[in-house]
From TrEMBL:
Family: Belongs to the TRAFAC class myosin-kinesin ATPase superfamily. Kinesin family. KIN-12 subfamily.
Kinesin motor domain span: 102-439
MF annotations from Gene Ontology: ATP binding; microtubule binding; microtubule motor activity
Alphabetical keyword list: ATP-binding, Coiled coil, Microtubule, Motor protein, Nucleotide-binding
Domain of life, per lineage: Eukaryota
Protein name: Kinesin-like protein
Origin species: Salix purpurea (Purple osier willow)
SUPFAM superfamilies referenced in this protein's UniProt entry, alphabetically: P-loop containing nucleoside triphosphate hydrolases (SSF52540)
Annotated coiled-coil segments of the chain: 446-473, 764-811
GO terms classed as biological process: male meiosis cytokinesis; microgametogenesis; microtubule-based movement; phragmoplast microtubule organization
Amino acid sequence: MKHFMLPRNPILREAAAHNEHSPNPSSHKMKPSPSPSRRNKSSKENAPPPDPNSITSDLKHFPSPASAKLKSPLPPRPPSSNPLKRKLIMESSPENSLSDSGVKVIVRMRPLKKADEEEGETIVQKMSNNSLAINGQTFTFDSVADTGATQLDMFELVGAPLVENCLAGFNSSVFAYGQTGSGKTFTMWGPANALSSENLSGDQQGLTPRVFQRLFDRINEEQIKYTDKQLKYQCRCSFLEIYNEQITDLLDPSQRNLQIREDMQTGVYVENLREEYVFTMKDVTQLLIKGLSNRRTGSTSINAESSRSHSVFTCVVESRCKSMADGMSSLKTSRINLVDLAGSERQKLTGTAGERLKEAGNINRSLSQLGNLINILAEISQTGKQRHIPYRDSRLTFLLQESLGGNAKLAMMCAISPAQSCKSETFSTLRFAQRAKAIKNKAIVNEEVEDDVNHLREVIRQLRDELHRVKANSNNPTGWDPRKSLNILKSLIHPREPNSSQNETVNCVSPSSLSIVPSEVSLVLKSPTPSVSPRISISRKSLRTSSILTASQKDSKDESKPGPENMRISFAKSNSSAARTAQTSKSCLAPTEHLAASLHRGMEIIDSHHKSSVFRRLSFRFPSKPAGSNPILPVDVGVQTFPQHDEISERVFLCTNCKAKTQLEVKDVDDSSNLQLVPIDCSESIEKPKTQVPKAVEKVLAGAIRREMALEEFCAKQGHEIMQLNRLVQQYKHERECNSIIGQTREDKILRLESLMDGVLSTKDFMEEELAAFMHEHKLLKDKYENHPEVSKINIEMKRVQDELENYRNFCDLGEREVLLEEIQDLRSQLQYYTDSSSSSVLKRNSLLKLTYPCEP
Ligand SMILES: Nc1ncnc2c1ncn2[C@@H]1O[C@H](COP(=O)(O)OP(=O)(O)OP(=O)(O)O)[C@@H](O)[C@H]1O
């Protein structure tokens, strides 16, 4: 216990010397008090960041209980988290500002469980206060607590020195390490019921509540004793867990996946972690109860309520006082970290699966990274050789790097079970403990004295002056108002957003928007706008669908059907699909809008014809054939409604070619659903008054619907592919987990071989364990093989290529290309026609009016 020394601070040293109740097992190691100049130097190296609230020596500035809750990063710490920098600091530090900071290792052996008792005797024997033997092999540590050790004993061994170190200004940490079910949680926090207020003095109470009980007692003692020096303490606590490599705030579990940050001033801290001031034991107990109830637990083969995360309870203790001797004020900051690590378990024995397997894999991986770090630190401490220290390998080591090989006194409480069934895990823990013992930390008192405070005060004063100057300058004659500008900027960044639902209404294609809307009757005949097909570049690749026909096929089929009927069917289809699309996905709105536009324009064409029919049955030319190989032969069409017997009236249609009147039975146009286009070719219309939809309109509509359906199919395919890709991601994750478990089994094998060589493991046991390990690994490999992501990946690729191939085949072999060309040509022809006719439209209109007005009944 050589590393626990008396406080260097004169007040506390004095206090410790006078305080008979204050156990300090290493008082003989006390070092001489540094000279003021030295103290100043060391203080500078550990100076916390300039915080106007903390650097003032005015002791009245401690927060009141009312303002105790705050959210902030972890408190300032000496900027020495960088090992290299730390090394430089340590080298330049005065020798006597350092404490002898070897890691203190205590092994606690839990009593046998009932089930284990049947197996026979314990395999671990305590040899002395600091040694034990297992299978004839002896291990020596700082202390060994056997099955009879009480919670109070553990506190005296670990907790009491920790409190004294903390009051002296040293960062102090306790890590509980060990196999699942070995008693870490029991030791650190005690059973849950021991935390309740009525059991506060119960003998089951764990280390943490005892530490805080002692801490508050000692703080009271100190404050009373040094009233004249205005000694004041304040403590603030946080509680977090690391589960599956993610940090959660246990005091506010809604704060998940918190990030660890590091900067030169504050060192390593957890962003947005809640900290609460504590003044009494009751405050701490409440935090513990709250935090522990939020911890992730699950059952393992050994422990029904196993902690599945690493949890870290942190308390920052700050003390301020004035020295009577030299009148200087001092601020000391120390941090207590109480860490309950998740327990390791051998997955091959427990046969875990699914989420538990992932958990176990993460626990074992981070423990193995901790072990690796401990090995490196031990090697550095023993050989003095500099090596890269992989603190960033895991959240645990990154967060607690200061406790591991840094500026902290560290006690490692290693929990073991003496049961035969836990032999190999116990060996593993003891080896870890042995390596940890070799580590040398470099703890220093984190103290700041008045000189620094004055300097920082001066800086603050200068900054305030600067601020005033800037404020004064801001009242400049230009009249520029920064607040106003800020508001303007804000309004630019957050413009008044229209109601999203309104937005949707605007974007959505309502089926009603596809209805025929009566348009204003104009004397000038409105040219129908060429239809715009949905523009979906990739949809071209998937035009062929299993459920639809190509345009050519559809054309040939449609020929047998009367046009209007067909149009109604198409319209209904597009209506429903538009509604469906609007419901399912916003992203599909654009193509649907295009479709709606196409349909609407189609209907406008019809409507124009309709109007022309109403309005003295004006006729106009509408090309129905592409102008490709065949020259455009304009077909004159008019618009008529379905005849209804009761409302039949005689209408006269004019053929623009022959000017022959055609009498057709049409009804008045009230009901636009009866609308249809009819050719007014004199020869055909007389002989064949049968209704027929112009092919150009029909094709455009059919094409639009066809593409929309193809798009839907394409979306469905994409959805399926996304599902497949998600599965692939899961498979990759699973593979990674399998790999890490296999890695773990290799490490286990090394340990087994070590045990075999040490004679701890008999050849028979070794072979048995080896066989079990191989079986487990075989199972994992089989699982890995069956769910191999590469196979799924290739399947997805193959499906993609097949689809592409089908699309190309559609496009080239099945006539899609021709259909599209035809459509384009149709549209071109229409455009051409209207361009040509626009110049003479006025003339024509006049002449047509002239021709048709006399026909009005
Ligand atoms: N020294 C002890 N005396 C009495 N009971 C103990 C002791 N140590 C552990 N136990 C009991 O053993 C059980 C498991 O202990 P605990 O939960 O502390 O193990 P653990 O090491 O934290 O396990 P895990 O890593 O799975 O969380 C608990 O019911 C606890 O009360």
